[in-house]
C-alpha cells in the first residue's frame, strides 16, 4: 500500500467533507488489513462472492460497499451485511433486494447508478430514464430499501473538461432529487484518475483503488 498517497487522499477528503471508500477488489485480506490498520473502515468490492469471503475473514466494523454490477442471483451473498450498494440500475434488482432485506430484517442502503459517460459499455440508468426510474420506485413500496443518492463514472479520457462536465451533470441531477427527498445525501463519484475533479464538483464519496493499493494486474 502507498502510505503517503493514502494520507494525501484522506486529507483531501477531509478538506471536502467527503467519505473515502478504499476499493479493494482483487486485493488480499492482508493488504486490506494493512489499510484498515491505518484507519480506513470503508472498502469497496465488485464481486459478491469475493466480498462475502473478505467480510468473513476481516474485522466486523468494516463498512462494505458493493460497487460492481450486481446480478439478482448474487444478492444473498451480500445482503446480510452490506453497508451500501452503489450500483442499482434495475427495478428487478430492487425487488430482489427488498426480499433479502425482509428476510434479514434490515434496511439495505442503495445508490442509483447513472450512466453519465460517453462509453457504451458502462452500466447505469440512462439520463433520460432517471426521472421515470425514480418515480417508479416511489410508486412501489420497498420498506427494506433506502435510496441514499447517486453514483456515476466519468468517461475514461484525458480530457479533463469532459470529465468535469459529466460530474457536473451528475451533481445537477443529484441536487434536483435532493430537493424532494431528504434521504438523498450521498453522491458517489471519483476514482484514482479523477477524484480531485469529482470533489471539486461536489462529490461526497470517492471510490479509490490503485492510488492506495497500487496498480491491479
Ligand atoms: C475499480 C473501481 C473503482 C476504483 O478504480 P481505481 O482507478 O483503481 O481507483 C472505482 N469505482 C468502481 C465502480 C470500480 O469498479
Question: How would you explain this protein's 3D organization?
Answer:
This protein is of the alpha/beta class and 217 residues long. Helices cover 40% and strands 20% of the residues. The chain has eight helices and nine strands. It has helices at residues 3-16, 29-37, 48-57, 91-104, 130-139, 160-178, 195-200, 210-213, and strands at residues 19-23, 42-45, 63-66, 84-88, 108-115, 125-126, 145-152, 186-188, 205-208. Strands 1, 2, 3, 4, 5, 6, 7, 8 and 9 form a nine-stranded parallel sheet that branches. Helix 4 links the parallel strand 4 (84-88) and strand 5. The model has no long low-confidence stretch (mean pLDDT 96).
Number of helices: 8
- Per DSSP, what share of the residues sits in E-state strands of 2 or more residues? 15-25%
Class of secondary structure makeup: alpha/beta
Assembly state (oligomeric): single chain
Q: What small-molecule ligands were found?
A: pyridoxal-5'-phosphate
Can you give the mean pLDDT? 96
The end-to-end span amounts to 15 Å
| Sheet with most strands | 9 strands, parallel
List the helices and strands and how they pair.
Blueprint: H1 3-16, E1 19-23, H2 29-37, E2 42-45, H3 48-57, E3 63-66, E4 84-88, H4 91-104, E5 108-115, E6 125-126, H5 130-139, E7 145-152, H6 160-178, E8 186-188, H7 195-200, E9 205-208, H8 210-213
Parallel strand pairs: 1-2, 1-9, 2-3, 3-4, 4-5, 5-6, 5-7, 7-8
Amino acid at each position: 500500500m502507498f502510505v503517503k498517497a493514502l494520507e494525501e487522499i484522506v486529507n483531501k477528503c477531509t478538506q471536502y467533507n467527503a467519505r473515502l471508500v478504499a476499493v479493494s477488489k482483487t486485493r488480499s485480506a492482508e493488504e486490506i488489513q494493512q489499510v484498515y490498520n491505518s484507519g480506513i473502515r470503508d472498502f469497496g468490492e465488485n464481486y459478491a462472492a469475493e466480498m462475502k469471503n473478505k467480510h468473513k475473514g476481516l474485522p466486523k466494523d468494516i463498512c462494505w460497499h458493493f460497487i460492481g454490477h450486481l446480478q439478482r442471483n448474487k444478492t444473498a451473498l451480500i445482503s446480510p451485511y452490506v453497508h451500501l450498494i452503489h450500483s442499482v440500475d434495475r427495478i428487478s434488482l430492487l425487488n430482489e433486494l427488498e426480499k433479502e432485506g425482509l428476510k434479514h430484517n434490515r434496511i439495505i442502503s442503495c445508490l442509483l447508478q447513472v450512466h453519465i459517460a460517453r462509453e457504451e459499455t458502462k452500466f447505469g440508468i440512462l439520463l433520460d430514464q432517471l426521472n421515470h426510474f425514480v418515480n417508479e420506485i416511489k410508486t412501489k413500496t420497498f420498506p427494506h430499501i433506502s435510496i441514499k443518492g447517486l453514483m456515476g463514472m466519468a468517461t475514461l479520457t484525458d480530457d479533463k473538461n469532459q470529465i468535469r462536465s459529466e460530474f457536473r451533470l451528475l451533481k445537477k441531477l443529484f441536487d434536483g432529487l435532493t430537493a424532494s427527498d431528504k434521504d438523498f445525501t450521498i453522491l458517489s463519484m471519483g476514482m484514482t484518475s479523477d477524484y480531485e475533479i469529482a470533489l471539486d464538483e461536489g462529490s461526497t464519496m470517492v471510490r479509490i483503488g490503485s492510488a492506495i493499493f497500487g496498480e491491479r494486474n
